[in-house]
Amino acid sequence: MTAMRMHRLNHGQRTVTRVSTPHAPWALVGECVVGVVRRRKLASTLPAGIHRLPGPCVVTAVRYSDSPVGPYLELAVGEPARLGARPGLCVTTMVVTTAEARVGGRLNWGFPKEVGALRWRSHGDEREVVWEDRDIVVRGRPWGPAPPLLVPMRALQRRGDGPVVVPGRLRGRAQLARVELEVPDGDALAPLAGPHRGVLLSGMRFVVEPARLPAGLTSTFRAPLRAPEPALLSSPSEVGGSRPSSPSRRHHFHGERCVAVRVG
């Protein structure tokens, strides 16, 4: 595992910051709200080579108190999918609050992470996450006991070197919950709005293993730790995690993120 490095280079009127983040596996600690949403029509497109399956979507709002890149918040939408004969979830929307978390997620596993403004609130047992850029709210109200839970995970994503299988495991104490999603009309995620069943997971320990490449219908083998990934040029505010990046300008780095900040 490599330590995170940040380098600043001056190019005329622009300062370029290259950020490298640790290789997989990642071990993360925190708490999360999970909503299970009956399948509705979303305007999402799955990556090439990954195909939809019937079943519910999963919406997660997470507060990571510790990770290889430090604390950060995350909101994600996963849709049921398959890669060959391998079922899993394909994450089609994912926003995080730090550039380092974004870089690591894209380079290690191909998660479509973008940097945005998330706010986490606790009201007694209730947990709430607000995605300020899109006025989306995820709110979980738990009830009942909180028994221990251990769940194997499998994400199906596409990196710069093609489709990959991302294994993981999640454990913690899970309480059944009523999860409410508030999404503005006209937003691409508006079909997910409303009350849903879900869980609140406390004392969460989440391990995300290195990506694996598919071989045949069901087998996999260890993928390279990193794949080349276009990195977006960002505004100064995005380096601090307050605004989504613009997809119109790109640089290519192998294993590092280029964040360009205008100066002067």
Task: Please describe what this structure looks like.
With 264 residues, the chain is mainly beta. It has a single domain, classed as Acetoacetate decarboxylase-like (Beta Barrel), CATH 2.40.400.10. The protein has two helices and 19 strands. It has helices at residues 99-109, 236-239, and strands at residues 5-11, 14-20, 26-37, 51-52, 57-66, 72-83, 86-96, 113-115, 118-123, 126-131, 136-142, 148-159, 162-182, 194-208, 212-215, 219-222, 229-232, 250-253, 257-262. The strands form four sheets. Strands 3, 4, 5, 6, 7, 8, 9, 10, 11, 12, 13 and 14 form a twelve-stranded mixed sheet that branches. Strands 1-2-19 form a three-stranded antiparallel sheet, with helices on one face. The chain is globular. The N and C termini lie far apart (36 Å).
